[in-house]
Amino acid sequence: MKYPQFLFFACFIMLCSHVVAQSVTKYPTLAEAWQLDSTSRSKQVEFRLLPYKPVYILFANYTTNVNHSPASSNENNVVEEPIPYNNVELAFQISFKTKILHNILGEKLGGDVWGAYTQSSRWQIYNNTLSRPFRETNYQPEAFLLFGTPYNIGNFKGVFTGFGLNHQSNGRSNPLSRSWNRIIFQAGWEVNNVQIVLKPWIRLPEAEKNDDNPDINDFMGRAELDLSYAFGKHDFQLVTRHSLRDGDKSHGSARLDYSYRFIKNLKIHAQVFTGYGESLIDYNHNQTTVGVGISLY
Q: What percent of the chain has pLDDT over 70?
């Protein structure tokens, strides 16, 4: 393992440990996760790192269809010479959030400003031919405003609505550069132990000649539906995306995560993804991946 890669991986582990050390073994409700219930709001602290999206390491992540020649509809972003990637790699993700401002519209109207960061990597650690490179890393900072919307219709419970800005890129140069910026709207509900979060978005336009991936909405979608369910030591999460178009622009994806808690916050983790956009470099590439590893929250 090269020294820079080792240092990067060590920093990843230390940051993950810091974030999850603040979590508890009980699976939080959406209101607790976003400090919208009365107990959480009384204890809220700005600028404290908290868990956001799943934090995991998949020691073996297998794909049915290796993307040897990443391409985009922008002619400047097409790889001409196939790259000899392996179909098994290591994948990991780190993600955290922090509250920046509390009740910006006052106690009655509320409104909390949050910042978040998610980074996911695909590492060809088993590929001796290419000297074990990082195949793809996606960086995703975001900021958003959330409002509590408590109401009940039978077992259907409203929790929050909000909107924010999201940037996602892989930090690479052409022909491998991929990126987009979005305004994301979101709403969260709970039905018994099922958590539901809906996120439609609008992509912010870019100059045509500078757009790494002009058709990304038709593959990575225009909306996302996130369903989470937990019982005992078992956690399930299903995330689906779709382009919301028909015909040859109808594309989508689904990702299922399952984890089993066996030592406090340490879990056995399995993940299955199918469809388009497993990562930004694969935004228009259709594949199914299966991974196994551990997660920390």
A: 89
What is the per-residue pLDDT across 57-68, written as a single tens digit (0 to 9) for each? 999 999 999 999
Select which of 40, 73, 102, 167 is catalytic: 167
Q: What is the value of pTM for the model shown?
A: 0.89
Q: How far is CA 233 from CA 70, 265, 266, in A?
A: 39, 10, 11
- Please give the tally of structural domains in the chain: 1
Q: Kindly name the residue from 23, 40, 73, 169 that is annotated as catalytic.
A: 169
Domain interval for residue 135 = 3-295
Q: Which CATH number fits the domain that encloses residue 58?
A: 2.40.230.10
167 is catalytic: yes
131 is in an annotated binding site: yes
